[in-house]
Amino acid sequence: MDKQVHEHPAGAPQAPAGAQPRDTGHPADGGRRAPAGQGRNRISPRAGTARAVPGAVCGLAAQGLVAGRVAWSSVLRPAGHAFAAMVAHASGAGRTVKDGSGVESVAGQDVRGTLPEGLGAAVRDTAGEIAALLRQGAGMELGIPGSQWTVGQAAAHLAQAGELMADIAAGRARSWGDGTPQSLAAANERALAAFGERGAEPLAAMIVAQADACVKALEERAADETLVSPLGPMGPGVLGSYLLTHMLGHGYDLARALGRAHMIDRARVELTLPFLITAMPRVSEPARTARLSASYTIRLWDGGRFGVRVAGGAVAVGPRPPERPDCTILIEPVTFLLMALGRRGQWSALAQGRILAWGRRPWLAPRFPALFTAP
Length: 375
Description:
By secondary structure, the protein is of the alpha+beta class. It is built from ten helices and eleven strands.
């Protein structure tokens, strides 16, 4: 996936004139989009300037805040029960179950068989919505905001990545870099240079066909099989989550470039968690983790949660949050994925109330995005 470093403007891309708004399910969930699958302190920015840092593509990180000189301070929490009620509502307390990856998720996101429930449909639906974007008179020469790629190049990359994932799911060995962010970016560029197709209809058809082929192959795999992906070994369910994450990131880019509604929603974000949890240690940034000792709990509004521990330069990520984390970050799901994929930074999300952080060391929150990087 291409490197992208840009701040997403407030709200989501606007749909074309005359389009009807879609119900997002929450007033601050990142904007309109297509439906899926038929006592503690919080912190706020006070002063300073920030520069963007590389966002993780296919791993949890963000184009975010690594401040040149940023002051963070604790602010008074809402009084007692009000704060507790707000956090309980946003985090979906009392309404979570475990899925097959161990991730705590919203009731109904259980796992049946090889793939998490709804994952196959989400992959196919996302591919179909991307294809629809391309078929609606897409300007294939338009630039992707914040990227050096055009719409045509991004679509071609999606087609190639779909074929790669389908081959891996079917057990066909494929080499695509050595697993490092830099090698993956170089492999992407070499593949694009050797693939000349930039037509909307052919690429749309390829994206749909390869997504379907990948899902069918994954459904035939045993749940405990190990497949070798560009980011290392993973099970079939995680590979499917990887494909979905990748398509959502580039699908979002295409929607922005074409001025249409994106397809990221809360349910699809839940389905990206198995991949993100698996990938995070593999895209951690040693220079930034070397001198840090910290534990985090990441909680999605009305959704999943997971834990991150950093010690001695090593990063451990798992579905079970630490019992006493140094810092808890509560974040709106669409915002979470956009930050994870480097599509937006923290400042505007904090200002809009889409991120809350508290704990014994809440000032660790703005450091979290820079612990990870990817192409």
